[in-house]
Amino acid sequence: xxxxxxxxxxxxEEFDKYQSVIDPLNHLVHCYxxxxxxxFYVEPGFYDGLLGFKEKRAERFAEIMEVIDEVIKxxxxxxxxxxxxxxWISREGYIYREIHDITDPLRIFVEDKSRGSDYGD
Length: 121
Known about the structure:
Layout: H1 2-7, E1 19-23, E2 26-33, E3 39-42, H2 44-56, H3 61-75, E4 77-80, E5 95-97, H4 99-103
Parallel strand pairs: 3-4, 4-5
Antiparallel strand pairs: 1-2, 2-3
């Protein structure tokens, strides 16, 4: 059944250059490994944020992916999450990075227009 669940995960084409890894303890978050054995997870919330930057800042998306690669190589064990205070998974020895940890130092910003209205009833 685990194989069926993993097969049904949405493909994250931006991470195709990495080896997909099946984590028997977690079948809801994509896990990858690079050629050096560095392992990382990409939670759905992080991926949604990444796609937002891909759509709205396509001209700088390659830079974002380069920094993600650098973070993986430097830290060896990374969980890319939407919210480091409430991650979907936790693993001993891993660090957490949110999308803005990647994009803010690059000075790549996208205005968040998803907040509620400022007008009262």
